Amino acid sequence: MIKLLHIENIAVIEKADIEFSSGLNVLTGETGAGKSIVIDALSAVTGSRTSRDVIRTGADYASVTAVFVDVGELPWFENNGVTPDESGELYVTRKISTDGKSVTRVNGVPVSITQLRELGSALLDIHGQNDGRKLLDENAHLSYLDAFGELDEQLDLYKSAYASYLSKQKEVDRLVMDESSKAERIDALRFRIEEIERAKLRVGEQEELSARRELLRNASKLTDSVEAAFEALYGGDNSDGVIALVDEARSHLEYAAGYSEGLLAAKERLVDMRYSAQDISDELRDFREKLDFSPGELDELESRIDVISRVVRKYGSEEKALEILEHSKIEVSDIEDSENRLSKLEHELESCYLMASNAADSLSDLRNSVAGALQSKVMDELSQLNMPGVEFLVTFDVVKGDKGLGPFGRDEVYFLMSANAGERPGRINRIASGGELARIMLALKNVLSADRDSCAMVFDEIDTGVSGVAAQRVGEKLSMLAHNRQVLCVTHLPQIAVMADTHFGISKSTSDGRTYTFVEQLDFDGRKVEIARLSGGENVTATMLISAEEQLESARIYKERLYV
Q1: Is residue 299 within a helix (H) or strand (E), and if so which, with residue range?
Q2: Alpha carbon distance 402, 392 (integer Å)
Q3: CB 463 within 8 A of CB 475
Q4: Shortest CA distance to 310 belongs to which of 196, 194, 207, 212?
Q5: Where are the beta strands (DSSP E) in 386-455?
Q6: For 160-172, how does the pLDDT look when each residue is reduced to its tens digit (9 = 90+)?
Q7: How is the chain split into domains, by residue range?
Q8: Could you report the per-residue pLDDT of 214-248, keeping only the tens digit for each?
Q9: Whole-angstrom Cα distance, residue 131 to residue 458?
Q10: N-term to C-term CA, the chain
């Protein structure tokens, strides 16, 4: 369960610490006071999508920290290398900066949003204000049934088989074309093959030829410069070169060194200089020989570069053109051999279809086997929510996809209901009122989470469209639900608030032109005032306080009987 929620700079909440308890935790307050901000903070710290817009005006960041206890042995811990601390507590922190970046940590270890979302789904089951409306989307009904039946493994097997079938169907479709289309395609491919082969491409040739062309274009200037440098080093008809002068200097120093050994080092450096000059002159001679070219070589280079450039402009690069050449040859071969390949692929396609169809049949059998149990459990829950005459049905239809298969099998699932005895069941999205949607969603949540006692449940205004006795039944159901797990609930209804084991009042005030929201755990007297306000409005009278105390006493007696 969640023990503590610390909020900083989220919307109008500058700073708040909320210490939740086990059982039913209720949050109430005026509309706009900031109740849903607490739910938003819980959503953020468990990995839901959020943005820098949640940061309080003027703040540099927003931060939420949640402390969880008694989380049990979750596979997430082993998979991600994070465990609760020695006290068994789990600290989850998410910090959002004004630059939009988000930093998340679990017990000090950085984790990704995806990792946090996976952990969050095991820690909190958040039912938002719009979840009831999801019942209006009949595409979601199948997922509810699969979740109830715990059919994830079977569904994954089907999805894998269906993906293989679709992939094989695409291969068949690529080969199935009329004869004229085949001929046109082969002509286009052969033209491409001939064009690229005629160019006789070699990776890197264009770069090499371009460098050679640049060399030849400047051959005259290069030759003059290289010749001059070579003559300066090696000498010419009218002058001695550097090498000869260095030899002469070395000879003089060698003679002088006979009288002064201190000159030996200078003589050796001249020897090194002579060898370096000789090496440079050899390099210049070799380079000069490369400058020898036939008169037509430049024209031939220009012509070859033009051929390569045309192909490269068309296909992107030498490497890409050669890849296209290879693929084109393969495609021509495939088309020419299409009849044999098509026969083989069609046989493989039939095998893939049978595997997908069998997996779909198995999945359908499992869905049909659990549909009755879902109907029975939901109807039992709804009868406890002041809908005794309700009829809830799970109906099946066959998808209209290819050969009766779709992304989730061959089934389309619809929830039908009749709110009153004697009325014919109809589709929920056509006949259910807002209050009925809220109660059906609560019933489904209770049924689907029956085996997740360690997961705290959060309800944001589950009371939408509910009042009177129905509201009382919702409050009682939430109390029953909180007997074995922690439940957090935002509500406007006194019938629900009186059932709280821990009650928080949320209020806001304005100071120096800024709005501040405060969260306070209410004692018994505070609860009386809040219940009276929820029942009668702003002007709380003594009679209203007496009525609130009676409601709280009635709720206490109900819970005592419930837990006996």
Answers
A1: helix 297-315
A2: 31
A3: no
A4: 196
A5: 391-398, 411-418, 426-427
A6: 999 999 999 988 8
A7: 186-334
A8: 777 766 677 777 777 777 777 776 667 888 888 88
A9: 12
A10: 23
